[in-house]
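Researcher: We plan to redesign the surface later, but first we want a full-length starting point. Tokens attached.
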């Protein structure tokens, strides 16, 4: 049995390489078919995200180079393009790596939960394509179970460790029910997109995206069922924002004290939660002087994030221990499969001997021989034939004594 995890990620490869090896979700089926044909692996699953492309496979012999070649052929790359960035984890290392990835221990953001869903989707596609079998089916089911236990038994995912997640966590503390709040997001970059994802996961139903380029705002809004507006519309829509989160690349403030003060009057001084995630700042510092405004900047969130990151690192140590135990359990199961052909052959051999001796016994009984004598002869004959081959091997091929120990363990002989 040979398990292998082969791939590259954010720690081993720059984004320029990760982009070239990424496999879109709608192309995973084609990639799997190409891989299994090119490398002749028995089972395979491809996990491809913005931070990693990994192949998990079961192979009867060493086919690493064929797998790399298949990956390169699919992407029309030369081996030299990706070889320096690849890692290879065989057998127990592959199992442990899968468990760590699913638990968020191998992620850019320690403990992030999105990767588990991505792994589930990757496995579901591979299973639907008929690319998985007994080994990978068991591996991924165990992987999902281990990830769930890590989430349940440790605090790996309970603390905010990104500014986007920290911003949403603070909003939850101020507003008891985010689903009833209108969130106005200013900007359309990566941070705002991540914030939008966290907000939707937290039940927010009304999102508004304001951006200098309306088309970019619409592209982001379409992903999360939000409304898109231009920055020119911001003054008129600012009063709608119970929660305002800004992250742009502007060199000058987007929100001034006067604009926020005017919005508060139209809101009849209902509280407004404002988070400025930009550097340089999008919100004038004087906004914090206004009543009914809760203003947080990146620096305000940084202390919370650092404290929470330390908590996650402690939880990660506990998660590693859980993973070690389950890795060993999986490898015990995998090793047991190696004995299956031998067990089947042993049972076939014994059944043949028994059947032959029983037939002889029946023949003697039909001939009128004494039943008691026939039974005794049957028992002696079976005993002699069961022990004949082992005895011969012990006397002829046991110079180093290893067969002695094996026989004692197999038959539980107390010598």
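Model: Full-length starting sequence:
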């Amino acid at each position: 049995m040979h398990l292998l995890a082969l791939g590259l990620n954010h720690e081993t490869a720059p984004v320029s390489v990760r982009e070239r090896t990424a496999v879109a979700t709608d192309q995973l089926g084609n990639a799997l078919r190409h891989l299994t044909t090119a490398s002749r692996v028995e089972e395979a699953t491809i996990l491809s995200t913005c931070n990693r492309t990994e192949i998990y496979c079961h192979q009867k012999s060493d086919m690493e180079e064929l797998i790399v070649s298949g990956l390169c052929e699919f992407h029309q790359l030369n081996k030299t393009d990706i070889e320096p960035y690849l890692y290879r984890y065989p057998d127990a290392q592959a199992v442990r790596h899968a468990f760590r990835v699913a638990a968020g221990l191998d992620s850019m953001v320690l403990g992030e939960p999105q990767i588990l869903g991505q792994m589930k989707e990757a496995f579901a596609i591979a299973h639907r394509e008929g690319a998985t079998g007994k080994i990978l089916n068991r591996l991924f089911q165990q992987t999902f179970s281990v990830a769930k236990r890590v989430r349940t038994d440790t605090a790996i995912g309970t603390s905010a460790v990104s500014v986007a997640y920290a911003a949403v966590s603070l909003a939850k503390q101020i507003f008891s029910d985010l689903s009833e709040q209108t969130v106005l997001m200013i900007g359309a970059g990566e941070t705002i997109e991540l914030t939008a994802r966290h907000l939707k996961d937290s039940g927010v139903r009304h999102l508004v995206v304001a951006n200098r380029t309306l088309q970019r705002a619409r592209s982001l809004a379409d992903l999360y069922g939000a409304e898109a507006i231009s920055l020119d519309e911001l003054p008129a829509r600012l009063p709608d924002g119970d929660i305002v989160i800004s992250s742009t690349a502007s060199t000058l403030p987007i929100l001034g004290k006067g604009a926020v003060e005017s919005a508060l009057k139209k809101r009849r001084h209902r509280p407004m939660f404002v988070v400025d995630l930009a550097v340089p700042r999008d919100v004038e510092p004087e906004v914090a002087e206004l009543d009914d405004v809760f203003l947080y900047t990146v620096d305000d969130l940084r202390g919370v994030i650092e404290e929470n990151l330390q908590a996650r690192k402690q939880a990660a140590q506990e998660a590693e221990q859980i993973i070690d135990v389950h890795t060993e359990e999986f490898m015990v199961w995998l090793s047991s499969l190696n004995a299956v052909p031998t067990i089947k052959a042993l049972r076939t051999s014994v059944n043949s001997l028994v059947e032959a001796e029983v037939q002889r016994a029946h023949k003697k009984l039909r001939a009128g021989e004494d039943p008691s004598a026939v039974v005794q002869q049957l028992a002696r004959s079976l005993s002699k034939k069961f022990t004949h081959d082992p005895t011969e091997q012990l006397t002829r091929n046991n110079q180093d004594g290893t067969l002695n120990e094996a026989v004692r363990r197999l038959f539980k002989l107390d010598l």
